[in-house]
Sequence to fold (122 residues):
Amino acid sequence: MAASVALATLLKGTVKRALSRTRPNVLLDQGRYRVEPLGPDEGPWHSLPSGHTTGSVALARAVARCWPSIRWPAYVGAAAVGMAQVPRGAHYPSDVLAGVVLGVAAEAVVHRLLPSLTSKAR
Fold:
């Protein structure tokens, strides 16, 4: 689980540094929206992807793989984290979707590289 979240965090940070986009609250408060490759490395520019969503989805997938009986509460928790990002003005829906994709990808890579660590305990 820790490896999945760590890789998700690394992927999220890499994308945020590669493509800077202003957050929705900047657009709403200041009327400013910009997207820049390798733009400013500041919080108001770190909209894409949602890091909270990326990490929570990677964790939920890892929990589901290790303990299938609690997969639905894990998925519901990850969905709640992702859905909360839009109304609070931190992320656009596309940021949340990108976070889902990165979280799933991170967990899949970790499972593929370290299958004995991510298999269901017997």
Strands lie at 19-21, 35-37.
